[in-house]
Amino acid sequence: MIDVVAGLILASDGRLLACRRPEGKHLGGKWEFPGGKVEPRETPEPALVRELREELEITVEPLRQLTPVVHDYGRGPIRLIPIVCRITDGEPHPHEHSEIRWCTADELDELDLAAADLPILAEWLSLPEKR
Ligand SMILES: Nc1nc2c([nH]c(=O)n2[C@H]2C[C@H](O)[C@@H](COP(=O)(O)OP(=O)(O)OP(=O)(O)O)O2)c(=O)[nH]1
């Protein structure tokens, strides 16, 4: 099982940052919550901080973890670990995505998200307090 962290980056206005995977890559054109694979002997929160520095040039503070989702795209199972976080330093500049967008809950619902992200969005939308 491969562990992948995904950051639900929460802005002060309640929007979340959605990122689009580049064409040509696995799941190209799909939207996701940015993050990546957890390395051996790494734990999810430091992995998220590392990945978001690399991908977006931001520093984040993890706030809380939501329910992990196990999914198989036909290349073996991944465990997608969602972590709500906020930016403590920097503005997002995409290095590995074709597009990034701050989205309200309704806007997220309209995006063509990667399949493994759908239960994560559903949990987020169901939370009475979005923080
Ligand atoms: N980072 C991230 N990956 C996700 C999300 N949803 C989702 O299904 N994935 C999948 C895509 C990949 O199969 C896997 C890890 O993605 P990655 O972006 O870290 O790795 P990668 O591009 O090097 O993946 P790969 O092409 O080598 O498979 O998790 C998500 O919200 N964020």
From TrEMBL:
Pfam families per record: NUDIX_4
Keyword GTP-binding appears in the UniProt entry: no
UniProt entry keywords in alphabetical sequence: DNA damage, DNA repair, DNA replication, Hydrolase, Magnesium, Metal-binding, Mutator protein
Reactions accelerated catalytically: 8-oxo-dGTP + H2O = 8-oxo-dGMP + diphosphate + H(+); 8-oxo-GTP + H2O = 8-oxo-GMP + diphosphate + H(+)
InterPro entries reported in the protein's UniProt record: MutT-like, MutY_C, Nudix_hydrolase, NUDIX_hydrolase-like_dom_sf, NUDIX_hydrolase_dom
EC assignment: 3.6.1.55
Required cofactor names: Mg(2+)
Alphabetized Gene3D superfamilies for the sequence: Nucleoside Triphosphate Pyrophosphohydrolase
Transmembrane segments: none
SUPFAM superfamilies per the UniProt record, alphabetical: Nudix
Nudix hydrolase domain span: 1-126
Record-stated family: Belongs to the Nudix hydrolase family.
Protein name: 8-oxo-dGTP diphosphatase
Lineage of origin: Bacteria, Pseudomonadati, Verrucomicrobiota, Verrucomicrobiia, Verrucomicrobiales
